[in-house]
Specification:
about 300 residues, alpha+beta, about 40% helix, binds zinc ion, three-stranded antiparallel beta sheet, BirA Bifunctional Protein, domain 2
Length: about 300
């Protein structure tokens, strides 16, 4: 069982307020909630705000389901970096006798995993992952590369927690840039400023910091240190509930990690292609807005409502 991290008193109280206001709907599993109408109205409005902000760059819009071929998880090294977060999909492939035994075990709510076989699918852990092989399959990239608006797909991370801002399944709004190293670095710097402006325009007190991923184990701590030293990951932080501000958006500069895995190349004398992505955590931003402006979006300041088209 993944370790459950209880929320601190402020987070527990905020979660209860959200459930009482029917903004979130309890499933009985920490970090897995249904969303009420008031919540979805705000989430969709911010989603549309990101689409509008990205439109100036004329990105190509792609959309993928929240499952990923297992092979991709294996190829990109996810199981080395984040084995503790991955969600794999198993299904039943047995005969009638085994089906009956499985049902009997399940009826008692005991472990029925012995009747299950691993499939060729995993739950998508990051909304940008399907983009890289899809673009690589087209062949070499024209000079300048391209920007992909990968939409707001559901992603899964096995992190049961009592903090309403730490969900096991949430929408990650991803924008991806693929191109020459200098092009990608310039894109990331420009979007770092734009994302802070975007969040401030809806009344959130956003700040920015160099960060690292929660890599697994001892070798993971080394990876995290080197990621931080090279400033490969940035986060945009907003105070939601609890002692520390929460990351509501993150920028990851992967350098040639995905390009070398999938053979992404520029159609140029120097074929080196780099990738970077920007992901907005839509539920976290929605929670930050509800925490900052109040649980009823009809009562929010006029300029915030106008900015979000509410
Ligand atoms: Zn990404």
């Amino acid at each position: 069982m993944a370790e459950f991290r209880p929320g601190d008193p402020e987070q527990t109280a905020f979660l209860q307020e959200l459930l009482d206001a029917r903004l979130l709907i309890d499933s009985g599993i920490p970090g897995v909630y249904g969303r009420g109408e008031g919540f979805e109205r705000v989430r969709s409005a911010f989603d549309a705000r990101v689409t509008a902000a990205a439109a100036a760059d004329e990105p190509e819009r792609l959309a993928f389901p929240p499952v990923l071929p297992r092979r991709q998880i294996e190829e990109i090294g996810y199981l080395k970096s984040f084995p503790h977060l991955a969600g794999t999909i198993f299904s039943f492939e047995g005969d009638e006798e085994q089906a009956a035994a499985q049902e009997a075990t399940a009826e008692r709510h005991e472990d029925w995993s012995e009747f299950q076989t691993q499939t060729d699918l995993c739950l998508t852990p990051a909304a940008c992952y399907p983009v890289y092989p899809a673009i690589a399959a087209r062949g070499k990239l024209a000079p300048g590369g391209l920007m992909v608006d990968a939409g707001g797909s559901y992603v899964f991370r096995r992190e049961p927690s009592g903090d309403p801002a730490r969900l096991q399944m949430f929408h990650q709004r991803e924008i991806v840039r693929i191109g020459e190293p200098a092009t990608v670095a310039a894109w990331r710097d420009a979007w770092r400023d734009r994302s802070i402006e975007l969040l401030r325009s809806v009344g959130l007190d956003a700040s920015f910091d160099v960060a690292s991923d929660p890599f697994f184990g001892r070798s993971g701590r080394l990876l995290a240190r080197s990621q931080k030293a090279q400033a490969l990951k940035f986060e945009v932080l907003v105070q939601i509930a609890g002692p520390e501000p929460t990351a509501v958006a993150s920028f990851n500069y992967h350098q040639d990690h995905f390009s070398s895995t999938y053979g992404l190349e520029m159609d140029a004398p120097d074929p080196t292609a780099h990738t970077a992505c920007l992901g907005f955590g839509l539920e976290r931003i929605t929670l930050a807005l509800l925490r900052t402006h109040g649980l009823d979006s009809d009562e929010w300041p006029g300029e915030v409502r106008e900015e979000l088209g509410l």
